[in-house]
Amino acid sequence: MTIAIANVTLAQSNSDSTPTTTSVKVQAGGGNSTLPYTIFNPQSVQVKAGQSVMWYNPSKVGEPHTVTFALDNKTKPDLSATFAVRNSSSFMPIPSNSTSEPVIIPNHQNPSMSMILGSNAVASNPVVIDSAGNVKHLVHNAAYSIIGNEKLVNSGLVFPKGMGPPNGSTSFTLTFERAGTYNYYCILHPWQKGKVVVQ
Fold it and tell me: What is the secondary structure of 22-59 as a DSSP string?
C-alpha cells in the first residue's frame, strides 16, 4: 500500500526548509515494554524527488533497528563477519574483568592463521557503498542524499532516545534525488520491510 504525503499523518514540515518542502517521518519499531514492534510505520511512503524521509525509533525498550537499502543484493551486510588473524594475535577484553571473548575458528586451509568472528561495522554503523564499491562512513544521526545508484545505504543501529550507547544514532534521514521505488529492511529483523516510492 502506498500512502501519499497529503494523507500521511506523520508528515511534518522540515524546520530548516522552504514552506513547500516536507519531510516524512517513519517509525522504525515501536510498541511498549512488553510487546515491542518490529515494523516500519508507515510501511510505505510516497514522496517527490528532492524530499526527505526521516526514520526514528520510538520503542519503549532499548531495541535497535536499522534502515538498510541494499540496492545491489550482493552487498547485503551481516551483523557479524569473519576475519583472518595470525595465531600469535592476543585479544584482551575491555574492560579487562568482563566475561567476553572473541569467537576463534581454526583455519584448516592455513594453520598459521585463525579466523575470528567480529562485529561488522558496515551493518552496525551508518555507511554508504557507492556504485564503484567505495565505502563511505557517515556520522551518527546521518542525513544523506541518495542518488539511486548506490549499492548500499545503511543507517546502522538506530536506538530509541536515551536508550542506546552515548554516540548511538536515534534517527536517519535520506533525501531522494531520483524517481523510483526504494525497498529497505532491518538487518536485525529481516522480515521488517518498508518502501519509499519517489515520483
Answer: EEEEEEEEEE-SSSEEEEEESSEEEE-TT-EEEEE---
| Tens digit of each residue's pLDDT, the chain (199 residues) | 333 323 333 333 333 333 345 789 999 999 888 888 999 999 999 999 999 999 999 999 889 999 999 987 788 888 888 888 888 888 887 777 777 778 888 888 888 888 888 888 899 999 999 999 999 999 999 999 999 999 999 999 999 999 988 889 999 999 999 999 999 999 999 999 999 999 9
Domains of the chain, with CATH numbers? 5-77+121-198 (2.60.40.420), 80-119 (no CATH)
Calculated CA dihedral for residues 137, 140, 145, 150, nearest 10 degrees: 40
The 10 Å Cβ neighbour count of residue 97 is 6
Distance (Å, whole) CA 59 – CA 32: 7
The owner of cell 550507547 is 165
